[in-house]
Specification:
Length: about 350
């Protein structure tokens, strides 16, 4: 399958749409109409809002909001996060007021750039490691692996594949992504709704945290201040690094639609790189608004590793600040690839 077909979602059907739902569940006398086809618009475009008033009420005022931010009836869609939002109109008439609401989807205004890569080096990787999380810290590679009864956290000499430190998770846990911040390793579990905190040097467990609204635990990365978490949907959650509370999230979209199944994450030069489950590719995401700005098709790499019955897809991406290069591997792959990526 081509990179374009792999990542770009079929364009949404187009039709004019309006809705008169009231946020409190009561049917409103009014409905919001937009000039956006299928209530879907791209960044940089202007959205025109109006009110349908079938009962011919004498309207004295209208206030529009996107989520909780007040906007004009002619709203230029910029500096807004991508994804699904709620449009609300508060209509004042005859000394009273009602609310009407509808959904609006905001897409990116440009297709993702297509990236290619060059293999710089190949290193040995444990063929029994079902890789879920991968990250460098002080030149050492840290890895989290999955599968019930086989999940582990380990420290690895990436050049030789030697395991420098290893602990096993309890058999009731399915290990997922990891990230390292302030001498702590944060490691997720899949469906158990719990993450673990370990000392980066000793691997001593120093704490744990529960998930909030996120569906499951999939991938983690950080920018030095914020921890980002994927949960298998198109959401990336922003976690407070002290409390681990999910304080916010972005929705990941291209110029045609959302991208689900976001998995392992890595923060590189101001962007979030994300594996997609069951796809041998990586997205490059703007963490401010969720826009997919680039895609990298790593599918040829799977043919370069030992083929065996348990071989699974690409998963695991790590940036090494010392070499300024990217490392990728997969679930039960026997190789770790050091690569350089570039726009085609």
């Amino acid at each position: 399958m081509s990179t374009t077909k792999l990542f770009i979602i079929t364009a949404l059907s187009l039709s004019l749409w309006s809705c008169g739902d009231n946020p409190n569940g009561k049917k409103s006398s009014f409905s919001i109409t937009t000039d956006a086809k299928n209530n879907t618009i791209a960044l940089g475009q202007t959205l025109k809002l109006s009110i349908e008033n079938p009962k011919n009420k004498t309207i004295s005022g209208i206030t529009y909001k996107i989520d909780s931010k007040e906007i004009a009836a002619d709203f230029n869609v910029k500096d807004v996060r991508l994804g699904e939002h709620t449009l609300t109109a508060t209509v004042t008439y005859e000394n009273t007021s009602e609310e009407a609401s509808t959904k609006l989807t905001i897409l990116n205004n440009a297709a993702p750039k297509i990236y290619s890569y060059k293999i710089l080096n190949e290193y040995p990787h444990d063929i029994t490691s079902y890789t879920q999380g991968l990250e460098f810290n002080d030149g050492i590679l840290y890895e989290s692996t999955g599968q019930y009864g086989k999940s582990k956290l380990r420290k690895v000499d990436y050049k030789t594949g030697e395991v420098l430190k290893n602990i096993n998770l309890g058999s009731q846990y399915f290990g997922e992504g990891l990230t390292i911040l302030n001498n702590n390793i944060y490691q997720l579990t899949w469906k158990e709704n719990i993450g673990f905190i370990h000392n980066v040097d000793t691997f001593e467990k120093t704490g744990s945290f529960n998930y909030g609204k996120s569906k499951e635990g999939w991938g983690l990365c950080n920018d030095g201040k914020v921890i980002y978490k994927s949960d298998g949907t198109n959401n990336i959650w922003k976690l407070n690094p002290t409390t681990l509370a999910e304080e916010d999230y972005i929705q990941v979209y291209t110029n045609t639609g959302k991208i689900d199944s976001l998995n392992e994450l890595e923060y590189i030069d101001g962007k979030i790189y994300a594996n997609i489950y069951q796809r041998n590719g990586v997205l490059i995401i703007n963490p401010e608004n969720g826009a997919v700005e680039g895609v990298i098709d790593f599918s040829p790499l799977q043919k370069l590793v030992t083929q065996h019955p348990s071989l699974d897809v690409l998963n695991g991406i790590a940036y090494n600040p010392e070499t300024k290069t990217i490392f990728v591997t997969g679930k039960d792959w026997d190789k770790l690839f050091e690569v350089e990526v570039f726009v085609k």
